[in-house]
Amino acid sequence: MLQESKQTDPRKNGTLILSDQNIEGIDQLPSPDKILSLNLSNNKIKKFQNLEHLKNLKELNLSHNQLENFEGLDPCKSLTVLNLSHNLFETLEFLPKLSLLTDLNLNKNNLKSLKGWENVKDLRKLSASSNKIKEIAYLPNFNKYEELILYDNKLEVIHPNTFEYGNSLIFLDLSQNRLKKVTFLAPLKNLQVK
Predict the structure, then answer these.
(1) Any idea what DSSP says for residue 60?
(2) pLDDT tens digit string along 66-104?
(3) Three-state SS sequence of the chain
(4) For residues 44 and 21, what is the distance between their CA atoms, to the nearest angstrom?
(5) Between vectors from CA 129 to CA 123 and to CA 113, what angle results, nearest 5°?
(6) What is the C-alpha to C-alpha distance for residues 172 and 168, in angstroms, rounded to an integer?
(7) Cα–Cα–Cα angle for 72, 77, 80, nearest 5°?
(8) How many of the other CB atoms lie within 10 Å of CB of 99?
(9) Whole-angstrom Cα distance, residue 53 to residue 61?
(10) Running DSSP on this structure, what letter comes out for residue 109?
(11) CA-closest candidate to residue 59, choices 79, 76, 42
């Protein structure tokens, strides 16, 4: 995930850190085409938009804000790491627009479903713990996932074919859920059990 830079001028390496500022919104950023990593965590942002100038952005941290919706990600075609933990999201409707995304953190939101994440073809790490997710269905584009962290949800059902193409998965955390049957683990040949 995104870590704060210790350099005196974080923009030299394309990093802009604006965390812990009580920011409610951003209209314009300095040299947006040079920003590769943007940290806006621990603010009061309710709506994040105007991303059309962040075409080279690779990492975005919007954790610990008040976001319910996320619009305008189309220009961020280079985005690979996205931290939206500790917000108010109920849906993942924005995800199909993020084709290069590899790492997604959705911990501590209000998600009841993961509908939408199945269209993100390069996702390798998904963490959606402490939500209200009850069910996971079949995932046709699951062959690149390495980590899936879904502890502390309300999972009751994971369909038997969900992990059919999960041959890259090496870490799976489903603790603190309501699962009664575990009939979905057989395809996970590379899962590292400790």
Answers:
(1) E
(2) 998 877 677 788 999 999 999 999 988 777 677 788 999
(3) CCCCCCCCCHHHHCEEECCCCCCCCCCCCCCHHHCCEEECCCCCCCEECCCCCCCCCCEEECCCCCCCEECCCCCCCCCCEEECCCCCCCCCCCHHHCCCCCEEECCCCCCCCCCCHHHCCCCCEEECCCCCCCEECCCCCCCCCCEEECCCCCCCEECCCCCCCCCCCCEEECCCCCCCCCCCCCCCCCCCCC
(4) 8
(5) 70
(6) 11
(7) 105
(8) 12
(9) 17
(10) S
(11) 79
CA 75/CA 72 separation, integer angstroms: 7
* Both structure tokens of 72: 């305008």
For 66, the token pair is 């008040």
Q: pTM of the full predicted structure?
A: 0.87
- Tokens 């604006």, located at residue: 18
Tokens encoding 3: 């870590």
pLDDT in tens, 13-62: 899 999 999 999 887 888 888 999 999 999 999 988 777 788 899 999 99
